[in-house]
Specification:
The protein is of the alpha/beta class. The protein has helices at about 10-20, 40-50, 55-60, 70-80, 95-105, 130-140, 160, 175-185, 200, 205-210, 215-225, 230-240, 245-260, 265-280, 285-300; strands spanning about 30, 85, 115-120, 145-150, 165-170. The chain folds into 2 domains: about 5-170, Rossmann fold (3-Layer(aba) Sandwich); about 175-300, no CATH class. The radius of gyration is 21 Å and the shape is elongated. The model is unreliable at about 195-200 (pLDDT under 50). The chain binds zinc ion (ZN).
Length: about 300
């Protein structure tokens, strides 16, 4: 998607571009800021830029760089590049075993790219032991390695880790930026309907830029058009499918909400918001979705 598609973070992108042009990249970067504003996306774009095989792009640092089309960019987009790794909390924490493995792995030269890039998600979840172990690698990083640390709250990180990183703050997205993302991503999204508060706190940008976004959105569109002819059994199997895990339910409800808003189905918007609240208050997900779908169906009559 290239840097030009990361919206609302012009300052960060400008700094990264300058670092890039000066060819003096720090080996530790910390991206911090609210959830859903593009930290992870930017880290991945950076990994692509550092490994992009399109030489012209590197020289010019033009807007559509990284190229997105070379083998390296494609592999990173698919999550199969051997030199780009994402480390996320397993269960609740990033533990010592994960960091020992990272420390070992980072000592090897890049396998096929120019740079090894390690993206640590939710860095604040490092256990004390893991943080201390990681610190040693960060103090003397192997050449051709970049660590991108991502966090929503930098104040919970060890000061010694912070002091070894370039710290780049990501800002929350303005209504205007979110509106722009929606209009670009969803055909016919009406300009006058501003996204609700929810989208600022949520993972809107991630969801929209995810490759299965348009697929799921189409599915919801079809579902809505055919809801009237759906039998109860079909409805219930749908809610079973989308209540399997928390993330799936969240995504489904977000897109359903987007769809309802874009069509100005305000009663449906209210039902969906109620369901979101119920789930946040720990009501059984499948039960909540069952009720929602039946209520939506009743609107079609
Ligand atoms: Zn490329």
């Amino acid at each position: 998607m290239s840097f030009s598609h990361i919206l609302g973070q012009e300052r960060v992108i400008e700094i990264l571009k300058r670092l890039f042009a000066g060819n003096r990249f720090p080996q530790g970067l910390l991206f911090y800021g609210p959830s859903g504003v593009g930290k992870r996306t930017t880290a991945l774009e950076l990994a692509k830029a550092l490994n992009c095989l399109s030489v012209n792009g590197k020289q010019l640092m033009v807007n559509d760089f990284p190229c997105d089309t070379c083998l390296s960019c494609q592999k990173i987009d698919k999550g199969i590049h051997p030199d780009v790794r994402i480390i996320s909390p397993e269960k609740e924490t990033i533990g010592i075993d994960q960091i020992r493995e990272l420390n070992r792995d980072s000592q090897w030269k890049p396998f096929e790219g120019s740079y090894k890039v390690y993206i640590l998600e939710k860095t604040e979840k490092l256990t004390q032991e893991a943080a201390n172990s990681f610190l040693k690698t960060l103090e003397e990083p192997p050449p051709q390695v970049l660590f991108v640390l991502i966090s929503e709250n930098k104040d919970t990180l060890l000061p010694t880790i912070l002091s070894r990183c370039w710290v780049l703050p990501f800002s929350g997205l303005s209504e205007k930026v979110i509106g722009g993302i929606l209009q670009r991503s969803i055909f016919n999204y009406p300009q006058e309907i501003l996204p609700s508060e929810y989208f600022f706190a949520g993972r809107m940008q991630e969801i929209i830029f995810n490759e299965d976004f348009s697929l799921l959105y189409q599915k919801i569109e079809t579902f809505w058009q055919n809801m009237f002819s759906f039998t109860e059994v079909e409805m219930l199997s749908l809610s079973e499918e989308y209540s399997k895990d928390k993330e799936k339910t969240g995504k489904f409800l977000t897109l359903l909400l987007l769809f309802a808003r874009s069509r100005k189905y305000w009663q449906a918007v209210e039902f969906i918001n109620q369901t979101k609240n119920q789930i946040q208050r720990n009501l059984n997900r499948q039960l909540a979705l069952d009720c929602l779908l039946l209520k939506l169906k009743s609107l079609c009559r």
